[in-house]
Amino acid sequence: MTSVAHAKPSGGAHDAHHAPMSFWRKYIFSTDHKIIGIQFLFVSLFFLLVGGLLAMQIRWQLGFPGKPMPGGGILPETMVVNGVILPEYYVQLVSMHGTFMVFFAIMPLLVGVYANFLIPLKIGAHDMAFPRINMASFWLAFLAGLIMFASFFVPNGPIRSGWTNYAPLAARPDLSGVTVGQMLWCVSIVVLGLSSVLGSLNYITTVINHRAPGMTWFRMPLSVWALFITAILGVLALPVAFAHGVLQHATPANGSTLTVPPAEIRLQFNEALEPSFTMVKLIGPEGKQIATDKARLDKDDARTIVLTLPSLVPGAYKAQWSTVGHDGHRVKGELSFKVK
Fold first, then answer.
1. CATH number at residue 278
2. Which residue in 57, 130, 246, 340 has its CB near the most CB atoms, within 10 A?
3. Does 281 lie in the same domain as 246?
């Protein structure tokens, strides 16, 4: 009779795969797609609560205008006076409510949560194609939310130009009254755009390359198809939001003219002018010629010349022009002005 000894299998790679992880590694800085999906869920619910609180203040002002808001005493006087919401703060409420609900509640909830949690499970993949990039995508989104939330605590508060933050109001701090909050909004959108692009590329790669054997394109669930198409649209659209944030950050306060609308100057003379060629020379703050352009005669008043000047940074300028009067003599002039 032969006896066979059964050796106890050594740990090896199998035990190493299931080695216990610390709390921070498993639940905070995790690369598991399910944990990351849950992280997106909690963050989106938090910002959903923030957006809801802002909406409640908007509803109070609409329902009881000029009346002290319950709990308004805890807000600074730059937002409320004796509990009454200030007009500037109301505009900020509308702007930031839309920003939080669209960018930090709906998008992470409908894409970040469901895509991370469902795509690998429904196509038979072990995890996302790039687990570490997936983790970086979440933390970039979280960082973007913190930057946006921090704009409430800077001088003059957050943006006052609506959640779309369109120029020229967003590009003119002298009109909106917001400088630092505007910059934080732009930085936050840039960081969030980077997060979304990384996540979308991860979802697309996972669906294309990590489907289980037999999971053909037309066997994929419709929910995966929806998330896959959403990711493709995100890769195409989010760089535009990224560029929007960069260009909006390029304001005159930062020495840029990218988003400053052109200025128009109207010069009225004592006599009617011929609609002839008029030269305009623009001299900049350093004495350099900036632009030479044509001016136009006002169609309703033959005595008025309309000068359309390019976007200008703050400083002192000088506009020199020459035109022709009705009797044929040339009229020359010079105008000095400052841009603040």
1. 2.60.40.1220
2. 57
3. no
Instruction: Please tell me the least confidently modeled range out of 127-131, 163-167, 290-294, 317-321.
Output: 290-294
Given 213, 232, 254, which residue is the final one in a domain? 254
Q: Is the peptide bond before 239 cis (omega within 30 degrees of 0)?
A: no
Q: Can you give the pTM of this predicted structure?
A: 0.71
33 within 8 A of 127, measured Cβ to Cβ? yes
Q: One-letter amino acid identity for 166? A: Y
Task: Give the span between the Cα atoms of 88 and 181, in whole angstroms.
Answer: 13
For the stretch 189-219, pLDDT in tens is 999 999 999 999 999 999 999 999 999 999 9
Sequence letter at residue 237: A
Per-residue pLDDT band at 273 (split at 50, 70, 90): low
Listed residues 233, 254, 275: the one ending a domain: 254
Residues near 265 by beta carbon (within 8 Å), at least 6 away in sequence: 306, 307, 309, 319, 335, 337
Say yes or no: 317 and 269 in one domain.
Answer: yes
241's tokens? 């939001």
Q: State both tokens at 11.
A: 């740990």
Q: DSSP 3-state assignment of 9?
A: coil
What phi and psi values does residue 262 have, to the nearest 5 degrees?
Answer: -65, 150
Range of the domain at 302: 263-339
310, 214: one domain: no
Find tokens 């795509």 and name the residue: 119
Stretch 23-30: mean pLDDT:
88
Tokens, residue 276: 């002839």
C-alpha neighbours within 13 Å on the C-beta side of residue 314? 9
User: Under the phi-then-psi rule, with left for phi > 0, alpha for psi from -120 to 50, and beta for the rest, what region is 156?
Assistant: left
User: Do the Cβ atoms of 187 and 245 come closer than 8 Å?
Assistant: yes
Burial class (CB in 10 A: 0-12, 13-18, 19+), 23: exposed
Residues 218, 292 within the same domain: no
- Helices assigned H by DSSP within the chain: 12-17, 23, 33-63, 87-99, 107, 114-123, 131-150, 173-176, 180-209, 222-249
Q: Taking 90 as the threshold, does the pLDDT of residue 154 lie above it?
A: yes
- Same domain? For 291 and 221 the reply is no
